[in-house]
């Protein structure tokens, strides 16, 4: 039976590998074919920058992306000082975006913003940088459908967040500001989900340190995402139950209660914090202390009168004690709270 299971597992691995290689090969062939078509595309050069730009616009409108790219590149390279060269910079980026070449589009929009910082379309181009990176995230997910999105490279999501931050810092009231915030939130949720996946992976394999660290990072860095409350709860539980780290558990649960007070996990965290506080309380705190009138044995004579000699020495300490001792410094007793 064991041998049969091993054979099935080996066949599944081989099938997955073959499917992966086939997908990669087909994608590379498709990219190569598209680039070959782009290089082989010929356009009829017109007499002026305006005519060539208009020809590119006509090709763009008709979804002839390769032809549009050729015309816009022609205007850029042959008429660099024409006003149409500036427009061609932007439309070239639009053409890359339209043909779903997200990284090329992001680079082209970035060049437009860099070289034409005062152009009226700078806000549009800056937002398109963020949108291009966001589309690259989606493309990364669709490219290998049998691999979970949170297992894939998350660099495009990080680029999306940076681009959105740049756009919102420069154009907080732009008409695309709300769309940028949504793109940013989606990218942050994807990063948090990737960390949660890694944390669960380590937790399942009893690698507690790695699991606790990732859960805590989700709570600290992605507190606005849906899984943050649960992540903080798990960070505290692992620290308490498997790492014997009460301080880390307390820190995670206190943050959970402060940041997500209405969550179901916060209720459990409050109870867990109370249990930690009770467990760390001094043992002597539960027993009543003697009243101020109580005297230790031997402080009074046989008739209840005070002894003839004062048992307190010159240093002001009880004989036999170390001068300057304070309650809580005795070995075995908890330290006094400052």
Question: Which descriptors apply to this entry?
Answer:
65% helix; disordered C terminus; elongated; single chain; Serine Threonine Protein Phosphatase 5, Tetratricopeptide repeat; 0% strand; 338 residues; mainly alpha
Account of the protein in words:
This protein is mainly alpha-helical and 338 residues long. Among the domains are: 34-99; 101-193, Alpha Horseshoe (Serine Threonine Protein Phosphatase 5, Tetratricopeptide repeat); 206-278, Serine Threonine Protein Phosphatase 5, Tetratricopeptide repeat (Alpha Horseshoe). The protein has twelve helices and no strands. It has helices at 2-40, 49-61, 65-78, 83-98, 102-115, 122-143, 155-170, 177-204, 208-221, 228-241, 246-259, 264-280. Helix 6 (122-143) runs antiparallel to helix 7. Residues 12-36 and 291-338 have low confidence and may be disordered.
Summary, kept brief:
With 338 residues, the protein is mainly alpha-helical. Helix content is 65%, strand content 0%.
Major sheet details: none
Assign the structural class, choosing from mainly alpha, mainly beta, alpha/beta, alpha+beta, or little secondary structure. Answer: mainly alpha
Spatial gap, N to C terminus: 66 Å
Mean pLDDT: 79
The portion of residues assigned to helices is 55-70%
Oligomerization category of the chains in this entry: single chain
Q: Which second-level CATH architecture of the domain at 101-193 applies?
A: Alpha Horseshoe
Question: Which spans have pLDDT < 50 for at least 5 consecutive residues?
Answer: 12-36, 291-338
Order of helices and strands: HHHHHHHHHHHH
What's the Cα radius of gyration?
35 Å
* Net shape: elongated
Number of helices: 12
Strand tally: 0
Beta-strand residue fraction: under 5%
Q: What's the CATH H-level homologous superfamily of the domain at 101-193?
A: Tetratricopeptide repeat domain
């Amino acid at each position: 039976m064991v041998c049969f299971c091993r054979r099935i597992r080996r066949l599944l691995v081989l099938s997955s590998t073959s499917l992966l290689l086939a997908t990669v090969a087909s994608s590379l062939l498709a990219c190569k074919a598209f680039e070959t078509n782009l290089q082989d595309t010929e356009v009829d050069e017109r007499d002026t920058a305006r005519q060539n730009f208009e020809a590119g616009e006509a090709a763009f409108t008709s979804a002839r992306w390769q032809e549009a790219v050729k015309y816009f590149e022609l205007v850029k390279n042959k008429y660099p000082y024409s006003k149409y060269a500036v427009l061609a910079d932007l439309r070239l980026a639009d053409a890359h975006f339209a043909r779903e070449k997200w990284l090329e589009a992001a680079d082209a929009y970035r060049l437009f913003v860099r070289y034409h910082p005062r152009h009226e379309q700078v806000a549009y181009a800056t937002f398109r940088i963020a949108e291009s990176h966001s589309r690259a995230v989606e493309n990364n997910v669709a490219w290998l459908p049998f691999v979970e999105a949170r297992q894939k490279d998350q660099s495009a999501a990080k680029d999306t967040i940076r681009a959105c931050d740049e756009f919102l810092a420069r154009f907080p009231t732009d008409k695309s500001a709300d769309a940028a915030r949504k793109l940013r939130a989606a990218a942050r949720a994807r990063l948090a989900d990737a960390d949660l996946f890694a944390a669960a992976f380590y937790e399942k394999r009893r690698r507690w340190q790695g699991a606790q660290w990732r859960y805590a990072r989700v709570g600290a860095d992605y507190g606005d995402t849906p899984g943050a409350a649960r992540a903080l709860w798990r960070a505290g539980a692992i620290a308490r139950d498997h790492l014997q780290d009460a301080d880390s558990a307390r820190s995670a649960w206190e943050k959970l209660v402060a940041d997500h007070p209405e969550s179901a996990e916060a209720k459990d965290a409050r109870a867990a914090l109370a249990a930690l506080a009770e467990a760390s309380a001094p043992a002597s705190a539960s027993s009543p202390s003697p009243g101020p009138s109580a005297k230790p044995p031997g402080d009074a004579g046989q008739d209840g009168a005070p002894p003839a000699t004062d048992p307190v020495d010159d240093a002001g300490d009880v004989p036999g004690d170390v001068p300057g001792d304070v309650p809580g410094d005795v070995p075995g007793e908890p330290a006094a709270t400052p």
